[in-house]
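Write out this protein's structure.
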Amino acid sequence: MYLTWVVHSNEALEEDSWAIIEINDNRFRLQEKTQRCIFITINLNTFKKSEEVQPLSSIAAIRAKSSQ
């Protein structure tokens, strides 16, 4: 089973620094980063996947730069 949470924030990739999240009285330890959903690379007008896999490629580059 997979859970999806939507979090609103003003800081890009803020979730990369989270170790624990708490919802009500329940604490969740985050074990690893997951890949971003591939659906954001699909053009909703043509239903074709971006050949450059954008914006995932840009997100990956930003994450790599911020982890150095």
